[in-house]
Design the sequence.
């Protein structure tokens, strides 16, 4: 009887020690999942003038898609923790001959599964590669958000400039209409000319209204980048005539090799390779070690039980899962090569497009727009003095409006192309400097 109590006491101590050993790391590895409380966005957004850097800060802080990507990364932290945890021990008990106490036999047994073949290290490596993919996804999402904010910001900036130009054009059209009215009153031109002038003034007013609607839509797109349904900022502050810089071929090649999208594809290939290694380790069966005590009432003593069990891999050697994991690893490597080709073509296309847009914008800014504006002002003044017909004024007005709209469109397209190029290459500092006028 004494030996029975001693064996039970030793077994309880062993179970308690294993429970403490298994429970301590869990407490130390507990992840604080309490969400951080963001500061009020209204105080940051409701400003008289909004810069590009402030808009990017708002989007990086409050964009819901970026928050979702960050939570995905935190979830993978939990998978890494879980991958390193050892299997739980198992305790079992059995009683033989429950009806007759004199011949009853009681068995208490503790079993522990021991992973063989490097399963735990392969599982941890696979989870860490998944965390690397989530980290690359978060970095790529940040660049997507910054590129979207940059494009929306310059859309608002160009729309503000377009409103200013449309307002100036409306003022000139009103001046021409007033001159035509005076000349009709003086009997120098036909009333039809005054009607044409009023039609041109109405067209300029329609253009101003359209520019105002486009500005309202662009402001909503910009505010939506940080999760706001109603824009509360006054206006955006920046320089539309500050064109984005061109990058050298060496810098593009260097930054393309470290592109977040390319880095993500590399991590994905490494993750599938780690999964293939994990499946190969599962071909090795695990060992289960048992330790227990068997008490026989008939014999009046306890017996120690030691056991070892291991599956015999005759039929299931995990061969199907190994083959699937290997083929998926091959697929990931092929996709990595395809990503390299696609990103290279994308960068080349955007680089050439940016060069063409910069040349177009510089030509329009330096030569065409000033010439068209000067011709329109000269025609308007000449019409007031009776030297030109209204058709000549109207033609000059149409030319000036078209080249000015083309110039603003070139500026917007150039900044959007530069933002897309920076998104692929992984840097955004140059675009922010261009908008704020900083070197």
Sequence:
């Amino acid at each position: 009887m004494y030996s029975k109590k001693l064996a039970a006491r030793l077994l309880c101590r062993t179970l308690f020690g294993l429970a403490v050993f298994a429970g301590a790391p869990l407490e130390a590895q507990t992840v604080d999942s309490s969400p951080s409380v963001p500061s009020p966005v209204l105080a940051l957004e409701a400003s008289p003038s909004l810069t590009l850097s402030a808009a990017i800060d708002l989007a990086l802080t409050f964009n819901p898609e970026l928050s979702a990507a960050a939570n995905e990364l935190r979830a993978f932290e939990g998978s890494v923790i879980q991958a390193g945890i050892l299997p739980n021990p198992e305790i079992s008990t059995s009683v033989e001959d429950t009806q007759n106490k004199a011949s009853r036999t009681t068995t208490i047994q503790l079993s522990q599964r021991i992973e063989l073949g490097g399963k735990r290290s392969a599982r941890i490596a696979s989870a860490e590669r998944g965390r690397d993919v989530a980290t690359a996804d978060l970095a790529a999402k940040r660049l997507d958000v910054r590129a979207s904010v940059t494009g929306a910001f310059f859309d608002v900036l160009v729309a503000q400039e377009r409103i200013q130009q449309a307002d100036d054009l409306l003022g000139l059209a009103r001046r021409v209409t007033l001159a035509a009215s005076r000349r009709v009153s003086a009997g120098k031109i036909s009333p039809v000319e005054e009607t044409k002038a009023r039609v041109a003034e109405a067209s300029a007013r329609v253009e101003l209204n359209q520019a105002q609607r486009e500005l309202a839509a662009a402001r909503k797109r910009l505010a939506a980048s940080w999760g706001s349904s109603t824009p509360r900022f006054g206006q955006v502050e920046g320089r539309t005539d500050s064109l984005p810089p061109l990058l050298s071929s060496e810098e593009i090649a260097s930054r393309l090799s470290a592109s977040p999208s390319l880095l993500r594809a590399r991590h994905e290939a490494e993750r599938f390779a780690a999964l293939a290694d994990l499946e190969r380790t599962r071909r090795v069966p695990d060992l289960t070690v048992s330790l227990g005590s068997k008490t026989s009432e008939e014999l009046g003593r306890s017996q120690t039980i030691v056991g070892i069990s291991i599956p015999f891999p005759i039929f299931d050697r995990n061969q199907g899962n190994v083959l699937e994991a290997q083929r998926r690893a091959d697929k990931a490597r092929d996709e990595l090569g395809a990503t390299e080709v696609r990103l290279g073509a994308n960068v080349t296309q955007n680089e050439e497009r940016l060069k063409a847009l910069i040349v177009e914008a510089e030509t329009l800014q330096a030569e065409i727009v000033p010439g068209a504006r000067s011709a329109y002002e000269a025609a308007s003044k000449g019409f007031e003095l009776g030297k030109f017909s209204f058709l000549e004024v109207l033609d000059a007005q149409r030319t000036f409006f078209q080249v000015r709209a083309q110039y603003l469109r070139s500026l917007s397209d150039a900044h959007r192309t530069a933002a897309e190029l920076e998104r692929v290459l992984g840097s955004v500092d140059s675009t922010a400097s261009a908008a704020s006028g900083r070197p």
Observations:
- Confidence is low (pLDDT under 50) at residues 1-39, 428-439.
- The longest helix spans residues 119-185.
- The CA atoms of residues 84 and 120 lie 6 Å apart.
- DSSP finds eleven helices and six strands in the chain.
